[in-house]
Amino acid sequence: MPPVVTQTLAYGPRYRAPSPLKLLATAIALGARPCKRVRVRSLSSPPARFVAPLALFCRPSSSHLSAGNSLFSQMERYWTGRGINSNKAMVEQLQNYGIMRSKKVAEVMEKLDRGLFVPEGTPAYLDSPMPIGYNATISAPHMHATCLELLEKNLQPGMHALDIGSGTGYLTACFAMMVGPQGCAVGVEHIPELVADSVKNVQRSAAVPLLKEGALSLHVGDGRLGWPEHAPYDAIHVGAAAPEIPKALVDQLKPGGRMVIPVGNIFQDLKVVDKNSDGSISVHDETSVRYVPLTSRAAQLRGF
């Protein structure tokens, strides 16, 4: 039996589609070889033009397609999700594919309608990143679910959470729903127009009481510096790829806290950073991802 590559390739918030050559290079970096099987835990729907270069390199034999673990079987599953037209159906799809296992995360994502956090006319429930303007996107639903589950133990009632690159406010609102009125969920975004829109989005959502009570707040700022006012944080999420883990964010993480952050340039890993009681940190790689850089507002508006 051909060996199995168990690395995941996922596309996160502020995603830009890689070129076919970069996607093929990623397959090589993950150790793929002709006729190897590639096991994918979560993969959003890349444009169809990306399939051909990968097919030449790592398409499994027909006998492997039936197992449902190949790259192409997984792609086909997500493409069938294009007909999903409700928030509840989106959550059920993520559960059916084994991406979402937490009942709490499912409950929060079902209560908070993603359709209220995307531009009008956007297919809100498709498992894919969506453009929101200013060279930014809202993450694919499977990445939202993944990050929420990685941070779930640090999003208990009364805890503090920080969302860097908060975009339309969706994930920050999810954090607020999880930490509740006694907790604190802070979103930081360096595009003022997106912050203004995100406040309006939250005001239409199930999270509006938390915004009014001050448990949820959205701010214009440089996310690379964090938001010291409400530090230390039990949970930090970063929605763009840093060349290395920012010290300012580590400093604002509470002992026992956890940060989820993509790190790298062309090849990136979603890193899980846990701060130990003595202040030291432990880091492990969760999955391979593709995010745009954690950079300045000017560089983002220029298109990086």
UniProtKB/TrEMBL annotation:
<keyword id="KW-0808">Transferase</keyword>
<protein>
    <recommendedName>
        <fullName>Protein-L-isoaspartate O-methyltransferase</fullName>
        <ecNumber>2.1.1.77</ecNumber>
    </recommendedName>
</protein>
<dbReference type="Pfam" id="PF01135">
    <property type="entry name" value="PCMT"/>
</dbReference>
<keyword id="KW-0489">Methyltransferase</keyword>
<dbReference type="InterPro" id="IPR000682">
    <property type="entry name" value="PCMT"/>
</dbReference>
<dbReference type="GO" id="GO:0005737">
    <property type="term" value="C:cytoplasm"/>
</dbReference>
<keyword id="KW-0949">S-adenosyl-L-methionine</keyword>
<dbReference type="GO" id="GO:0030091">
    <property type="term" value="P:protein repair"/>
</dbReference>
<comment type="similarity">
    <text>Belongs to the methyltransferase superfamily. L-isoaspartyl/D-aspartyl protein methyltransferase family.</text>
</comment>
<dbReference type="InterPro" id="IPR029063">
    <property type="entry name" value="SAM-dependent_MTases_sf"/>
</dbReference>
<dbReference type="GO" id="GO:0004719">
    <property type="term" value="F:protein-L-isoaspartate (D-aspartate) O-methyltransferase activity"/>
</dbReference>
<dbReference type="GO" id="GO:0032259">
    <property type="term" value="P:methylation"/>
</dbReference>
